[in-house]
Specification:
The complex is a heterodimer. Chain A is an all-beta fold. In chain A, 0% of the residues lie in helices and 51% in strands. In chain A, the strands form two sheets. In chain A, strands 2, 4, 5, 6, 9, 10 and 11 form a seven-stranded mixed β-sheet that branches. A four-stranded antiparallel β-sheet of chain A has the order 1-3-8-7, with no helix packed on it. Classes of the chains: A mainly beta, B mainly beta.
Chain lengths: 112, 115
Protein backbone atom coordinates (compact mmCIF):
# COMPACT_ATOMS: atom_id res chain seq x y z
CA UNK A 1 0.00 0.00 0.00
CA UNK A 2 1.50 3.33 -1.10
CA UNK A 3 1.24 6.17 1.36
CA UNK A 4 0.63 9.85 0.69
CA UNK A 5 3.36 11.46 -1.35
CA UNK A 6 4.06 15.14 -1.97
CA UNK A 7 6.27 17.01 -4.39
CA UNK A 8 8.52 18.87 -4.33
CA UNK A 9 10.04 18.46 -0.88
CA UNK A 10 11.48 21.95 -0.81
CA UNK A 11 10.79 25.07 -2.82
CA UNK A 12 12.10 28.63 -2.79
CA UNK A 13 10.05 31.37 -4.45
CA UNK A 14 10.12 35.14 -4.63
CA UNK A 15 7.34 37.35 -3.30
CA UNK A 16 4.67 37.89 -5.95
CA UNK A 17 5.33 34.63 -7.77
CA UNK A 18 2.95 31.68 -8.08
CA UNK A 19 3.54 28.13 -6.85
CA UNK A 20 1.95 24.71 -7.40
CA UNK A 21 2.34 21.89 -4.88
CA UNK A 22 1.32 18.33 -5.65
CA UNK A 23 -0.08 15.45 -3.62
CA UNK A 24 -0.84 11.83 -4.41
CA UNK A 25 -3.38 10.29 -2.09
CA UNK A 26 -3.11 6.89 -0.46
CA UNK A 27 -4.57 4.02 -2.43
CA UNK A 28 -8.33 3.74 -1.91
CA UNK A 29 -8.73 7.29 -0.54
CA UNK A 30 -10.96 9.79 -2.35
CA UNK A 31 -10.63 12.80 -0.05
CA UNK A 32 -7.65 15.13 0.16
CA UNK A 33 -7.13 17.92 2.68
CA UNK A 34 -4.42 20.58 2.66
CA UNK A 35 -2.92 22.21 5.73
CA UNK A 36 -0.43 25.03 6.29
CA UNK A 37 1.99 24.68 9.19
CA UNK A 38 3.92 27.82 10.03
CA UNK A 39 7.08 27.48 12.05
CA UNK A 40 6.32 26.63 15.66
CA UNK A 41 2.59 26.29 15.06
CA UNK A 42 0.07 23.51 14.57
CA UNK A 43 -1.26 22.80 11.09
CA UNK A 44 -4.11 25.00 9.88
CA UNK A 45 -6.79 23.69 7.54
CA UNK A 46 -6.74 25.29 4.08
CA UNK A 47 -9.36 23.26 2.20
CA UNK A 48 -10.59 19.78 1.43
CA UNK A 49 -11.42 18.10 -1.89
CA UNK A 50 -13.83 15.22 -2.30
CA UNK A 51 -14.54 13.68 -5.69
CA UNK A 52 -12.96 16.63 -7.49
CA UNK A 53 -15.06 19.27 -5.69
CA UNK A 54 -14.03 21.62 -2.89
CA UNK A 55 -15.72 20.32 0.25
CA UNK A 56 -14.87 22.93 2.83
CA UNK A 57 -12.41 25.75 3.28
CA UNK A 58 -10.58 27.30 6.18
CA UNK A 59 -9.76 30.96 6.72
CA UNK A 60 -7.48 31.42 3.72
CA UNK A 61 -7.79 34.02 0.93
CA UNK A 62 -8.88 33.14 -2.63
CA UNK A 63 -5.29 33.25 -3.88
CA UNK A 64 -5.07 29.79 -2.31
CA UNK A 65 -6.80 27.45 -4.72
CA UNK A 66 -6.80 23.76 -5.47
CA UNK A 67 -7.71 20.95 -7.79
CA UNK A 68 -8.43 17.29 -7.43
CA UNK A 69 -8.06 14.93 -10.37
CA UNK A 70 -10.01 11.78 -11.30
CA UNK A 71 -7.27 9.64 -9.74
CA UNK A 72 -7.79 11.64 -6.50
CA UNK A 73 -4.40 13.30 -6.62
CA UNK A 74 -4.47 17.00 -5.84
CA UNK A 75 -2.74 20.32 -6.38
CA UNK A 76 -2.48 23.38 -4.18
CA UNK A 77 -1.88 26.63 -6.02
CA UNK A 78 -0.88 29.86 -4.33
CA UNK A 79 -0.82 33.10 -6.32
CA UNK A 80 0.86 36.39 -5.47
CA UNK A 81 3.09 34.82 -2.85
CA UNK A 82 3.69 36.75 0.37
CA UNK A 83 6.48 36.33 2.88
CA UNK A 84 3.98 34.93 5.42
CA UNK A 85 3.21 32.07 3.03
CA UNK A 86 6.53 30.52 4.03
CA UNK A 87 5.53 27.30 5.78
CA UNK A 88 5.34 23.53 5.60
CA UNK A 89 2.36 22.51 3.45
CA UNK A 90 0.87 19.19 4.39
CA UNK A 91 -1.47 17.06 2.37
CA UNK A 92 -3.64 14.39 3.99
CA UNK A 93 -5.87 11.78 2.41
CA UNK A 94 -8.77 9.83 3.85
CA UNK A 95 -11.61 7.55 2.83
CA UNK A 96 -14.84 9.53 2.78
CA UNK A 97 -16.49 7.68 5.62
CA UNK A 98 -13.38 7.48 7.77
CA UNK A 99 -12.13 10.59 9.46
CA UNK A 100 -8.67 9.19 9.97
CA UNK A 101 -6.37 11.32 7.84
CA UNK A 102 -3.03 10.08 6.62
CA UNK A 103 -0.44 12.78 6.12
CA UNK A 104 2.30 13.12 3.58
CA UNK A 105 5.81 14.35 4.43
CA UNK A 106 5.01 17.92 3.39
CA UNK A 107 6.49 20.54 1.09
CA UNK A 108 8.63 23.22 2.69
CA UNK A 109 7.97 26.53 0.91
CA UNK A 110 10.24 29.50 1.50
CA UNK A 111 9.21 32.89 0.11
CA UNK A 112 11.96 35.51 -0.11
CA UNK B 1 -16.79 26.20 16.92
CA UNK B 2 -14.18 23.71 17.97
CA UNK B 3 -10.78 24.38 19.49
CA UNK B 4 -7.89 22.58 21.14
CA UNK B 5 -5.56 23.80 23.87
CA UNK B 6 -2.33 22.00 24.60
CA UNK B 7 -0.88 22.94 27.97
CA UNK B 8 2.87 23.29 27.87
CA UNK B 9 4.69 24.03 24.65
CA UNK B 10 7.69 22.07 25.88
CA UNK B 11 7.84 19.05 28.20
CA UNK B 12 11.08 17.41 29.31
CA UNK B 13 11.27 13.98 30.96
CA UNK B 14 14.01 11.51 31.80
CA UNK B 15 14.27 8.23 29.95
CA UNK B 16 12.05 5.69 31.71
CA UNK B 17 9.83 8.34 33.31
CA UNK B 18 6.13 8.83 32.77
CA UNK B 19 5.12 10.96 29.81
CA UNK B 20 2.03 13.14 30.24
CA UNK B 21 1.00 15.57 27.50
CA UNK B 22 -2.13 17.59 28.16
CA UNK B 23 -4.92 18.41 25.74
CA UNK B 24 -8.23 20.14 26.41
CA UNK B 25 -10.84 20.59 23.73
CA UNK B 26 -13.90 22.69 23.13
CA UNK B 27 -16.72 21.36 20.98
CA UNK B 28 -20.45 21.94 20.80
CA UNK B 29 -20.97 18.54 19.20
CA UNK B 30 -19.58 15.11 20.09
CA UNK B 31 -15.92 15.27 19.16
CA UNK B 32 -13.53 12.94 17.44
CA UNK B 33 -10.08 13.42 19.00
CA UNK B 34 -6.64 12.54 17.72
CA UNK B 35 -3.02 12.63 18.75
CA UNK B 36 -0.38 12.97 16.04
CA UNK B 37 3.41 12.89 16.34
CA UNK B 38 5.79 14.84 14.13
CA UNK B 39 9.50 14.10 13.92
CA UNK B 40 11.82 16.83 12.62
CA UNK B 41 11.34 17.61 8.94
CA UNK B 42 8.60 15.02 8.58
CA UNK B 43 4.84 14.92 8.23
CA UNK B 44 2.36 13.86 10.89
CA UNK B 45 1.89 10.27 12.04
CA UNK B 46 -1.30 9.20 13.79
CA UNK B 47 -0.68 7.86 17.31
CA UNK B 48 -4.26 7.19 18.34
CA UNK B 49 -7.84 8.34 17.93
CA UNK B 50 -11.05 8.56 19.95
CA UNK B 51 -14.23 8.07 17.94
CA UNK B 52 -16.90 7.64 20.64
CA UNK B 53 -16.19 4.00 21.43
CA UNK B 54 -14.00 3.13 24.43
CA UNK B 55 -12.88 6.15 26.45
CA UNK B 56 -9.41 4.69 27.04
CA UNK B 57 -7.66 4.52 23.71
CA UNK B 58 -4.46 2.62 23.07
CA UNK B 59 -2.19 3.69 20.28
CA UNK B 60 1.13 2.86 18.73
CA UNK B 61 4.51 2.90 20.49
CA UNK B 62 2.97 2.31 23.93
CA UNK B 63 0.96 5.56 24.04
CA UNK B 64 -2.57 5.81 25.32
CA UNK B 65 -5.10 8.55 25.99
CA UNK B 66 -8.27 8.83 28.02
CA UNK B 67 -11.31 10.79 26.89
CA UNK B 68 -12.90 12.59 29.85
CA UNK B 69 -16.05 14.39 28.81
CA UNK B 70 -16.59 16.05 32.19
CA UNK B 71 -13.12 17.58 32.02
CA UNK B 72 -13.13 18.11 28.21
CA UNK B 73 -9.72 16.51 28.20
CA UNK B 74 -7.83 13.97 26.13
CA UNK B 75 -4.40 13.71 27.74
CA UNK B 76 -1.71 11.51 26.20
CA UNK B 77 0.38 9.23 28.41
CA UNK B 78 3.15 6.68 28.17
CA UNK B 79 4.39 4.82 31.26
CA UNK B 80 8.06 4.84 30.33
CA UNK B 81 9.70 7.34 27.98
CA UNK B 82 12.21 6.24 25.40
CA UNK B 83 14.77 8.42 23.66
CA UNK B 84 12.99 7.77 20.36
CA UNK B 85 9.84 9.47 21.74
CA UNK B 86 11.50 12.88 21.43
CA UNK B 87 9.32 14.72 18.90
CA UNK B 88 6.48 17.22 18.65
CA UNK B 89 3.00 16.04 19.54
CA UNK B 90 -0.24 17.54 18.30
CA UNK B 91 -3.75 17.06 19.60
CA UNK B 92 -6.58 17.57 17.10
CA UNK B 93 -10.37 17.60 17.08
CA UNK B 94 -13.05 17.19 14.46
CA UNK B 95 -16.74 16.43 14.57
CA UNK B 96 -18.53 13.33 13.39
CA UNK B 97 -21.40 13.79 11.03
CA UNK B 98 -20.23 17.04 9.54
CA UNK B 99 -19.69 17.35 5.83
CA UNK B 100 -16.09 18.37 6.35
CA UNK B 101 -13.60 16.26 8.21
CA UNK B 102 -11.14 19.08 8.69
CA UNK B 103 -8.93 18.71 11.72
CA UNK B 104 -8.39 21.55 14.17
CA UNK B 105 -4.99 21.28 15.78
CA UNK B 106 -3.46 22.57 18.95
CA UNK B 107 -0.16 24.42 18.84
CA UNK B 108 1.81 21.35 19.74
CA UNK B 109 3.98 20.15 22.62
CA UNK B 110 7.63 19.42 22.05
CA UNK B 111 8.76 16.42 24.08
CA UNK B 112 12.42 16.14 25.07
CA UNK B 113 13.77 12.94 26.64
CA UNK B 114 16.91 13.13 28.74
CA UNK B 115 19.22 10.11 29.08
Amino acid sequence: ETGVTQSPTHLIKTRGQQVTLRCSSQSGHNTVSWYQQALGQGPQFIFQYYREEENGRGNFPPRFSGLQFPNYSSELNVNALELDDSALYLCASSARTDYEQYFGPGTRLTVT
Amino acid sequence: AQSVTQLGSHVSVSEGALVLLRCNYSSSVPPYLFWYVQYPNQGLQLLLKYTSAATLVKGINGFEAEFKKSETSFHLTKPSAHMSDAAEYFCAVTSYGGSQGNLIFGKGTKLSVKP
